[in-house]
Amino acid sequence: MAATADDTAQHTDPPASSPPRARRRTGPVAMVVGFFGELLITAGLVLGLFVVYSLWWTNVVADRAADRQADKVRDSWARESDDGGGGSGGPASYDSKNGIGFLYVPAMTGDQILVEKGTSMKVLNDGVAGYYTDPVKATLPTSGEKGNFSLAAHRDGHGAKFHGIHRIEKGDPIVFETKDTWYVYKTYAILPETSKYNVDVLGKIPKGSGRTKAGHYITLTTCTPVYTSKYRYIVWGELVRTEKVDENRTPPRELR
Fold first, then answer.
1. Disulfide: which of 140, 235, 243, 251 matches 182 by Cβ 3.0-4.6 Å?
2. What beta strand segments (E) does 144-225 contain?
């Protein structure tokens, strides 16, 4: 006789339950490895945030500060022009604590670069270029004297105004704008690497540039290689002409 469903149910033994597994205890070595692994992950995140801050956020902050200062300079120039010079003449503009003018280097950047007095971190961190007052004092082009208008700016972070300095080639224009005059320079020599202590490149007759006589020079300096400050990158230019600023502030042909 065939077994019924009831008979099958009565004679089938329930499956034996699996015994509970014993929990594996973490050994001291595994605990230490796990702890240091978490530390490394945390350190990596912190380092990543620091890199973002240094190479991106400081640029944002510096550019904002530079834009504010640039607006102050141009507003000051406009007021002086409206006042007919304010009775003080051009030199008053060059003593402005907000900046003395604007640098343009088309091969390096399409932006204007505000130029201020000094090359300290406090000055350069605001996203500007600064002219040297120490260890060798720069000769301002507005003085009319022969000498070297030597400038510095950051290559990375804090505006990174000279980041593309390696794109400059011999013959490229470098233009400096003041309230009344455009100063047009032509790049004549480049030194891709030199010691940070080589101050001779800032001299009135810059050593290593190939020039041996006094003239109207401009020198751009910044750190190299990229993302380090081990050496200095140098670009030299020589004044080829000046142009008076017209009422529309029409730029020289090198900037059009």
1. 243
2. 147-152, 173-177, 181-195, 216-224
The answer to the question of residue 28 being in a domain is: no
- In the set 154, 158, 166, 216, the catalytic residue is 154
C-alpha distance from residue 149 to each of 42, 61, 246 (Å): 47, 27, 24
User: Is 166 marked active-site?
Assistant: no
**Residue 150 φ then ψ, to 5°:** -95, 135
Asked whether residue 29 is domain-assigned, the answer is no
Task: Kindly report the CATH number assigned to the domain that includes residue 176.
Answer: 2.40.260.10
pLDDT tens digit sequence for 78-95: 998 777 654 444 444 445
Angstrom distance (rounded) from CA 88 to CA 210: 39
| pLDDT higher than threshold 80 for residue 35 | no
The yes-or-no answer on residue 158 being catalytic is no
216-224 and 147-152 as β-strands: parallel, antiparallel, unpaired?
Answer: parallel
Domain assignment present for residue 20? The answer is no
Asked if the structure places residue 121 within a domain, the reply is: yes
Spatial contact of 221 and 192, defined as CB atoms under 8 Å apart: no
Amino acid letter for position 220 = L
Predicted TM-score (pTM) of this structure: 0.78
Least Cα distance to 168 among 147, 138, 191 occurs for 191
> Domains in the chain: how many in total?
1
Q: What is the extent of the structural domain holding 155?
A: 50-255
Q: Which of 158, 163, 216, 223 is catalytic?
A: 223
Q: DSSP label at 180?
A: S
Residue 149, strand partner residues = 218
